[in-house]
Batch of 2 targets.
Target 1
Amino acid sequence: MAVSVVMAVYNGGKYLPQQIDSILDQLKDDDELIISLDPSTDHSEQIIMDYCLKYSNVRLLTGPGNGLIRNFENGLKSAVNEYVFLADQDDFWLKEKISKVVSAFDQNTMVVMHDAIITDSGLNPTGTSIYQMRNVRTGIWNNILQNSYRGCCMAFRKELLEYVLPFPRKLPMHDQLIGITGELLGKVKLIDDQLILYRRHEDNSSNMKHAGIMTMLIWRLQIILAYKTIRERICFGK
């Protein structure tokens, strides 16, 4: 069972080699690492090109330059294997992440999410984890009200892409929509294994803090409308 790992990169050169190495250590010959690179001002492109020359299953795509969500969308459009993993540019995958996540899928499971060890910029654990920091739970409306889904901790069946792509025009986060779609089509399984080092630093694209009340209300409206769009795609076709 082959996997596609999709990574979105923007000015990620500082931590990129550690993350790519931790992923490649787990990939088999028929697996692939797809990296969508938004136009960057650092040496990210050269780093990725060096890996492409060395590894035939690493692919570099030119990102659209429209932010994180559209960069991930660009990479996901090229994924071909049965299981799709999302990867941030600055984390570190622990050994057996792929094998443990893939083994957690059963016939009705569409999405698997695992825990992560939160670290500082030097990958030193801070003493807590994603599951401990957030009230992680399944349920569509639970995750519309308060999103539990973290893309860097998720893998899903490729067939979900038939319904989530293209992403709705206004979307708070892509991982939230993927998780909810997984619940519409089957079930989401949460496993307790801590399988990545989740690096927090001053340049993170995602934020662990709550947004303001007005922003949260707008995001909830956007995810409800996106949810409605996905339901229509499932019920009536795209």
Note: The domain at 3-236 is CATH 3.90.550.10 (Spore Coat Polysaccharide Biosynthesis Protein SpsA; Chain A).
Target 2
Amino acid sequence: MPQVKAKELRELNDDQLARRLDEAREALFNLRFQLPSGALERTSELAIRRREIARILTIARERERAKEQADG
């Protein structure tokens, strides 16, 4: 699965971003179970999923802060 760009994530609305976060977390969870059994061929997938989750959380936080500044 290719890496997701922050630009692509910023184009999503809040619901789509939350859904994407759930999917990424589930994928990371599944990858963690494959690792000890030796079923995971590309261990770099773990880092890719972690980075994707971090990007999504960063964008979500940026949106929260923008809303706070607009209200305050």
Note: The chain has one domain: 6-71.
